[in-house]
Automatic annotation (TrEMBL):
Pfam families: Glycos_transf_2. It is a single-pass membrane protein. Pathway: Protein modification; protein glycosylation. Belongs to the glycosyltransferase 2 family. Residues 71-261 form the Glycosyltransferase 2-like domain. This is dolichyl-phosphate beta-glucosyltransferase. CDD domains: DPG_synthase (cd04188). It comes from the Eukaryota. It is found in: Endoplasmic reticulum membrane. It comes from Hanseniaspora osmophila. GO terms for biological process: protein N-linked glycosylation.
Amino acid sequence: MMNTTAIATVAVTTVVALLASIYTLVYLFSNQPRSVEPSEQVSSYYDYDSKTIKKAQLPQTPLHKSELKFSIVVPSYNETERIYVMLREALEYFAQNEDYSKEISTAKDAYEILIVDDGSRDGTFQYVLDLCRQDEFFAKVLSTTNGVIRCIQLSKNRGKGGAVRHGMLHARGEYILFADADGASKFADSGKLITSIQDKTESGKAAIAIGSRAHMVNTDAVVKRSLIRNILMYGLHTLVFIFGIRSIKDTQCGFKLFNRKSMLSIFPFLHTERWIFDVEILILGIRKNIDIHEVAISWHEVDGSKVDLARDSINMAIDLVVIRLAYLFGIYKDN
Ligand SMILES: *[C@@H]1O[C@H](CO)[C@@H](O)[C@H](O)[C@H]1NC(C)=O
């Protein structure tokens, strides 16, 4: 019969071995954003004065002070079919809200839309530049409101989180919205998001406003999704709940607004480049005690989602567990 010392030794060894293997697994599955190539530090835009496409260097490191009021970051992968509607809606909003063109600060532009082409293979980058050059409505609004659509091309696909991070770190706005290219959210609702964190921003505090679809769980827009999609979404929500974001109902909505201060506390530390990056953003926000406001927005399902549910839901589940444990083990750092 083993004595108690032997039993204790076996138990301790087992626990240590188990922890070491979990640590190794988390380490192996953890993500680090890839480094940025020089060509990705440059944006192209259509200049209405000289009628040519120009290139401009993006800010090399995140700016501490904003240069304009509002930046919109649009991660775009193969979006030639969908992005027109989204951009047009955004420009309609700017055409009707003269506030933005009046509030010119240090920059020449009043607002900027950053298209981060995530290594598309359908010509999204050129498509958007052509729109700026050829579409009369785009030309009229951009030149009269002093807005600019800047296109940035990632030389290799990074994943949606990587594209959003890249745009955020190179944006110049006081308010920076990340908005999906599919136009599922109503762009005019960005006004609601800004209003909800305006006080905080003006008093120099970090704040985030996120679009929420939680108020429409039982409406047509959601019920009409296929059964399998709803089941997988439900599974994902349950996992997110288990892994600790209980205070926020809709973590996945592609319509999130940051003021410069919250952008600076979150995006330099974001590790996840794939789909579940939204959750890491919110985990970072909670870790740093940043105010997060959920704002109900209009939303409708748009066809052509790039999420491959069968393959991606497993990756999402892995990334979700990895994020939580990587912060716990200190593999991910937040400062
Ligand atoms: C992106 O577009 C290219 C070219 O049209 C196509 O070959 C590829 O399958 C597309 N990828 C996705 C995920 O839609």
